[in-house]
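Re: the request from the purification team.
They wanted to know what the chain is likely to look like in 3D before they choose a buffer screen. I agreed to run a prediction and write the result into the notebook, where they can find it.
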Amino acid sequence: MPAAAASQKRDYYEILGVQKTVSAQELKSAFRKVALQYHPDRNPGNNEAEEKFKEASEAYEVLSDPERRAKYDRFGHSGNPFEGFGGAGGGFQGVNINDIFGEIFGDIFGGGRGGGRRTSSRGADLRYNLEITFEEAAFGSRPKVTIPRPKKCETCTGSGSKSGAGPRACGTCGGSGELRYTQGFFAVSRPCGDCGGTGAVVPDPCARCKGSGKTPSEEVIEVAIPAGVDNGTRVRLTGMGEPGDRGGPPGDLYVTVIVKEHPLFQREEYEVFCEVPISFTHAALGAKIDVPTLDGKVKMTIPAGTQSGKVFRLKAKGIPHLHSQQRGDQHVRVVVETPTELSSKQRELLEKLAELSGEESHPQSKSFFAKVKELFG
């Protein structure tokens, strides 16, 4: 490069707005910021922005390589081996600009690496909402469900071709699966629309599957629901989704559990809650009553003088923990019922009880009214 031309070029560090001590990661971030600002796609028809974009690209290409950066730090532009990189010679001589942007931007502008032809593709995942009972969620079950799951076309044995010859290279993209476009100096690629990015087309599609290699079908599948699942739990069945294209692996089936409400029980995590009504006499005198649980009825002792709203705990009568031997508890809240219809004999006995009771037999009422008297006189 002539000395005069070299002296006119701006300092690479200045172009990217960094110091000479900049790290590799900081250099990459600085280039990304400048390149996004002046990218031709964001500045169509702006020649000045295009030149600054070229300038930043040249600076990053040199400074991102440790050997070239060391040479530039020592000799400046006169030691730059990329003569004509963006100058009068035109173009980026000896430089693959898409490699730069594949590293920095990935697929933001379609210039990333890793494209190309895909000979096969994984099948789609399927999703199924499965409604189960409260008890099935607690203890597990193995229901059978019918799902719509495409299968390999029997007519063309999955090739998608009437003749069985299978797909051939797409004539539009030459089998690469992508089309390349040039905007000024910058080349970008997009998936081919004719082959969907696979690089292959079926010239004589099977009449039954229309070239897809798959036909609609339904399949009965047994789903293992583990004990302890809750509403919204997802169960994954590997390989039970749609079959892949051209020999690709199948997708997965995700079963979402929906638990029906129970008429007696509510659930919080692994704990079960329920309310049980008891009579006034049972609450006052004490009793043994039948209480429903997930395992059936059990006897529970009600101590004499039990108040309405009292909660009792039944150990290990709740929900089994998922994938564990532990189990939650059941919480029983008793509600004392007040009789609504009394015979004359019952009324007489209750009036006698009230006369004999006084305040001593109602400690909560006594305490309450004592506080009221203290506050209000």
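For the purification team: The radius of gyration is 39 Å.
Please add any questions underneath this entry.
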